[in-house]
Amino acid sequence: MDTIDTAPSVRVLPTEFGAPALNITLEEGLIGCEMWQHFTLEAPADTAPLMLLRSLDEPDISFIVCDPRAIESDYSLALSDTEMDILGGPSADELAMFVIMNVKMIENRTQVTVNLLGPVVVNLANRAARQVINPDHLAHHPVGDLSHVSADAKA
Amino acid sequence: MLVLTRRPDESLSINSGEIIITVLGVEGDRVKLGISAPRHVSILRQELCEEVREQNRVSALPVQASGQLAAVVRGLVATQPVP
Fold first, then answer.
1. What SS3 state is found at A113?
2. How are the residues of chain B apportioned to helix, strand and coil, as percentages rounded to the nearest 5?
3. CB–CB of A31 and B49 under 8 A?
4. Which option is the CATH number for A2-154: 2.30.290.10, 2.120.10.30, 1.25.10.10, 3.40.50.720?
5. A31/B contact by beta carbon, under 8 A
6. Å from A110 to nearest chain B CA?
7. Which residues, numbered 70 to 89 in chain A, qualify as contacts with chain B under a Cβ-Cβ cut-off of 8 Å?
């Protein structure tokens, strides 16, 4: 399986937050978003435990992501043999995963949910990644609400 | 799309019997299906993929916003109770 760190046509964007970034490639893109395949994953100190996933294909597309076990400590994911093959046959300690957070402004409240149904699995050895379905979990698993968050933050 | 009509207890054989789909019963507007397939074949309710696709799309943020928002929202995750 091809290991792509940065594809030749991808623009190298400035790293705004100063932490070493990890480039990952989803051969089939995010589910339903096949054109978004190349990403950089940043873990700045000031957003921990949250991380930022930034598209290298679309300059202004990014996601807030985190380890699902920060939300549900016993979160587990079983990968099929096919999925493991597609990822390049990683060993258990070469696997990492993250889930995508959704932040929705409703009036002056901020509702935060996380997609535990569709985690992204990463093979740290070759930076291949894939979004998979983990049934019996919620696509909008509630994390919490914040009130009085400035509307400017999402503008 | 191949369209077939089956009665309860009738089956479809896919890929020379590698996958068999059987109509187990019909109750009102619900059809109960049984699927026998090798372990490596993933079988999912289609709407799950659609839910994930939808969440992906609505969760995308401009690069400027995600960093700022994450710095604010992280407080919610840091305070999750540990069982």
1. strand
2. 35, 25, 40
3. yes
4. 2.30.290.10
5. yes
6. 9
7. 70-71, 73-74, 80-83
What phi and psi values does residue A20 have, to the nearest 5 degrees? -60, 130
pTM, to two decimals: 0.80
Q: What is the DSSP letter of A50?
A: -
Picking from B51, B60, B78, the nearest residue to A139 by CB comes out as B51
Higher per-residue confidence, B61 vs B43: B61
List the single residue in B with minimal CA-CA distance to A63: B60
* Residue A152 clears pLDDT 60, i.e. is over it: no
Band the pLDDT of B40: cuts 50, 70, 90.
confident
Amino acid (one-letter) located at B16:
S
Domain ranges of chain A: 2-154
Nearest to A86 by CA among B40, B19, B38: B40
Task: Please report residues of B whose CB lies closer than 8 A to that of A115.
Answer: 52, 55-56, 59
